[in-house]
Amino acid sequence: MPKPIEIENIEEMRLREGIVDVELRDQIRGLQIGDLVKVTLLAMAKSGAGETVLVQITSIRGNGFCGKLTRRPVTVGLSKLRAGLPLAFTKAHIHSIPKEQLTHEPG
């Protein structure tokens, strides 16, 4: 059975450093199905490396999101993941939102 994909909890990391990203929180509230977000997948290799990838949102339920990878990661330990792979994540996992996409008004 394959191991679940680990996604970095970027919100927790920011809070530990005393960073409160109000702008990102507002942007997350305005996300819609079809939008792109960046999340960081953590490699299973001993290096502890990760890769920030684009995910297209396919559903939103409260603080929970489902999406699919837009392309295959290149980092060792993640390179076997394929484009289109479904991912479940929360708003705490959203690293950022591509600037060219920010056309929606936060809700």
List keywords for this structure.
107 residues; alpha+beta; six-stranded antiparallel β-sheet; 6 strands; 14% helix; globular
Describe the structure.
- The chain is an alpha+beta fold.
- The protein is 14% helix and 33% strand.
- Strands 1, 2, 3, 4, 5 and 6 form a six-stranded antiparallel sheet that branches.
- Strand 2 and strand 3 form a beta hairpin.
- The longest helix is centred in the first third of the chain and has 8 residues.
- The model has no long low-confidence stretch (mean pLDDT 88).
Termini separation: 40 Å
**Main sheet?**
6 strands, antiparallel
Radius of gyration: 14 Å
Helical fraction equals 10-25%
Give the uncertain stretches in residue-range form: none
* Helical run tally: 2
The average pLDDT value, as a whole number, equals: 88
Specify the oligomeric state.
single chain
Helix/strand order, N-terminal first: EHHEEEEE
Q: Strand content of the residues, in percent?
A: 25-35%
SS content category = alpha+beta
Q: What shape does the CA trace take?
A: globular
* Strands, total number: 6
What topology does this entry show?
Blueprint: E1 6-7, H1 10-16, H2 22-29, E2 36-42, E3 50-61, E4 64-69, E5 86-90, E6 94-96
Antiparallel strand pairs: 1-2, 2-3, 2-6, 3-4, 4-5
Précis, in short:
The protein is an alpha+beta fold and 107 residues long.
